[in-house]
Each structure stands twice: as C-alpha cells, then as structure tokens.
Design brief:
Layout lengths: L5 E2 L1 H9 L7 E5 L12 E2 L9 E2 L3 E4 L13 E9 L13 E5 L11 E4 L3 E4 L2 E4 L9 E2 L10 E3 L7 H9 L4 E5 L3 E7 L3 E2 L10 E2 L2 H11 L3 E8 L3 H8 L7 E5 L10 H6 L3 E6 L1 E2 L3 E7 L6 E6 L3 H19 L10 E6 L10 E10 L5 E5 L8 H6 L2 E5 L11 E6 L8
Helix pairs in contact: 1-6, 3-6
Length: 416
C-alpha cells in the first residue's frame, strides 16, 4: 500500500472492504444466537406438527357419520374417550363414535374431522352433533408447518427473536454462527480526558471511544476500549499493543500529518495508506495493518473530531463489521431516496453528509430535512439525526421537494 492523495468515498470503501472476509464459525446455544449471523443453514430435526392435531376444542368424528347433520336434525354419536394436548386417545374411532378432543391433541385413529364444541351437545355417554363437516375440518395435518430435513433459515441470516422461536420448534438446540468481531478502540490526544475526570484548562471530554464501542456493540461486535494514548510515540505504541488478538484496531485522532500526529509513523510505516477522502465532515483517514505491538492487526484510523468520527464510522466501520459477520456491507434500507424538506445551496468538491430528520408526508413519501446548522463540532445534531443526507461533489443548488439520497441511522443486530 502506501498511497497518498484524494480519493472518493466509494473508492475508499472498496479498498477497505476488500481486505475483510467473514470470520470463522462457532457453535453457540440457541438462546445465545440472537443477533448472530448464521454460518450454516438451520435444518429441521423433526416434523411440525409431528402428528395430525386438532385446531379446535370439540369432538373428533368420522365426517361420513354426520354428513346429514344440521341444527334441526342432530346426529347422536357414542362417546368413547377423550384426547387432550399431551394425552392422546389410545383407541380407534369406529362408526357412530366420537372422542372429546381439545386444541393441540392428536387426532385419534379412525377420525378424520373435528366438530367445534359450539355445534355439539353432550348427553350422558353420547353427544349430539348439529353440523355436518368435511374431512379435515379443524385438523392440522402432520408437517403443516415443516418436515424433518427442511431448510428453515438460510446461511447468512441475522438471527431474530422469531428465528430463535422457529429453531426451537424444529428441535435445534445449537446453531453455527460467525464469530463476533473483536474490535479494539484507541483514542489519542493530550487534549482529551475521560467523562467524569477533572478537565485541564485546554482539555475536552473524550466521546469518540465510547461512541465507537457502542456502535460496535449495536452491530454485533465486541468492543475493547484501550483508553486514551498521549501524543507521544511511546504511549501510543504501548496502548496499541492491547489490540493484539483483535480483528480490527480503530483509532481516533492522529490520522493527519501534523507534528503531533503519530499514528502512521508508530503503527504503520509502509503498511498503511494515508487517505485524504473527498468527504465532509472528515477527510483524513488511514487504513492498513498496524505492525507495532498490535501484531499486524488491521487498523482503521478515523478523524479526531467527534462528528467526523461518527460519520466515518457509519460509512466505514459499520460495513466492516457486517462483512466480518457474513453480511452484505449495507443492510436493507441503509440507503433510500427521499425528497428534501428545505433548499440547499450548491456543494463544493467534497461529498457532503448533512445531518437531518426524516418524516413522511401525506402520501407516505419520506421527507429529509437538514438541520439549519451543520457545524462539525455539534455532536447534539448527530445524536438527534434520523439520517445523513448525501450531497454529491459539486452538486448544484437543490430546492425543497427535490429527490435526495439518504443514509438511515437505524438498524442493528437486535431485530424482532
């Protein structure tokens, strides 16, 4: 690697994502599979339902015996037993016989239909049936849902709560899923302190590391916060060594070429590319392999500005985490078309990602409205945003109602 120059967001994403592939599979207990990505399909181990079962409380009968029954002329059948869920009737229903049955109970041998209890009148050891039914009425046949050997969930699926329930129905207690990405996060800079610490006269509170760790968690990864490295090579090298064994090291700050920016020199050498990306907020970024004490861990160097870090993480870190788990880089609904809720002036040569809100108009069309102020220091705007409004380089002025591409700021591993 080792290139310097201005590149597009699309080119930067392509270069970065080309370096990653899905992590190996591991076996986890079904309750622990929520939010994980399947490395192998889920195959049913049994047939569901395993037997023909009643879908109604009523009476199991032979449909032919009550073919002429109606409310005015009920047919009397002899009661020969009872079937409840978990308690099958052990005999056979013969001509002129019926079995009291409850929802979920196996349909007795000889019976081919169920008459719901509202159309029946028990009378001692007999029952009067006041409605004719067709064979199969209120009967769930064996295998109605699925059969043993059926593929129920495909490889590459993000496991939802409903999927957990389905696998349980199929008697699958263990799932093969991709290992969670392990991501080390290292903030840099003499000017930052951790939340709650006393602040010096020239210091600010560090938000980047905590925000990045939270993003990693929402996307299915496991974050390791390495803390804050000072602006000297020894501190940076020592703290970066904590990334050994991780799948990715993410740094914030120190990605530029100033006298106090040491990330490239200490961790990279010729193993890192320095990217000036034609985007705002943010433009300075590094990617490659950190070869210092971190043990040649892939490194993504993000800007130090909090909003720039957040936007860059959405565009670059989130898709890395998805690829490592066997997912497509961008999930469904990641990029959508909306119409502008306010006019915008012409854009400069950098691709702009405006923070904004999303609403729906009367006909359901999405309306994306940028915040009036877009200062890169305003973290509150990013926190309140529903989307990033994408403005291509050198885009002409736009009017309210014009179409625009947005990137939604929703979506994680815990979907219903």
């Amino acid at each position: 690697m080792g290139g310097v120059g201005v590149i597009s967001v699309a080119e930067a994403r392509a270069r970065i994502l080309a370096a990653f592939s899905p992590l190996p599979a591991e076996t986890v207990a079904l309750p622990d599979a929520l939010g994980r990505v399947l490395a192998e399909p889920v195959v049913a181990r049994l047939t569901q339902p395993p037997f023909a079962a009643s879908s109604m409380d009523g009476w199991a009968v032979r449909a032919a015996d009550i073919a002429q029954a109606d409310a005015e002329h009920p047919v009397a059948l002899r009661r020969v037993g009872e079937a409840a869920a978990g308690h099958a009737f052990g005999g056979t229903v013969g001509p002129g016989e019926a079995v009291r049955i409850f929802t979920g109970a196996p349909l007795p041998d000889g019976a081919d239909a169920v008459v719901m209890q509202e159309d029946c009148e028990p009378d001692g050891d007999r029952v009067r049936i006041g409605r004719a039914v067709q064979p199969g009425r209120f009967v769930r046949p064996a295998g109605l849902d699925f059969s043993a050997g059926d593929e129920l969930l495909p490889k590459g699926r993000l496991v939802t709560a409903r999927d957990v329930a389905l696998a349980a129905c199929a008697n699958v207690p263990w799932l093969r899923v991709h290992r969670r990405p392990r991501v080390a996060v290292l903030a840099t800079g003499d000017e930052i302190a951790l939340p709650g610490e006393p602040l010096g006269p020239s210091q600010i509170v560090s938000s980047n590391a905590l925000g990045l760790c939270a993003l990693v968690a929402t996307q299915g990864g496991v974050a390791h916060n390495l803390g804050v490295a000072k602006d000297d090579p020894e501190s940076l090298a020592a703290m970066a060594a904590g990334a050994a064994g991780c799948d990715l090291l993410v740094t914030t700050g120190g990605a530029s070429q100033g006298e106090h920016d040491h990330v490239r020199d200490v961790l990279g050498g010729l193993e890192l590319d320095f990217y000036t990306i034609a985007m705002k907020p943010g433009k300075a970024m590094m990617f490659g392999r950190a070869k210092s004490g971190a043990g040649a861990v892939p490194l993504l160097g993000l800007p130090g500005n909090a909003v720039s870090t957040g936007v860059a993480a959405i565009l670059f870190l989130r898709p890395i985490l998805r690829v490592l788990q066997g997912l497509a880089p961008d999930g469904p609904g990641f990029s959508q078309t909306a119409k502008l809720g306010a006019a915008l002036r012409a854009n400069d040569s950098r691709e702009d990602y405006l923070r904004g809100t999303v609403t729906a108009d009367a006909d359901g069309t999405l309306v994306a409205t940028p915040f009036a102020r877009q200062d890169n220091a305003m973290m509150s705007r990013l926190a309140k945003a529903d989307c990033l409004i994408v403005r291509p380089p050198n885009a002409p002025p736009a009017q309210a109602g014009d179409p625009v591409t947005i990137i939604t700021l929703s979506g994680g591993v815990l979907t219903l």
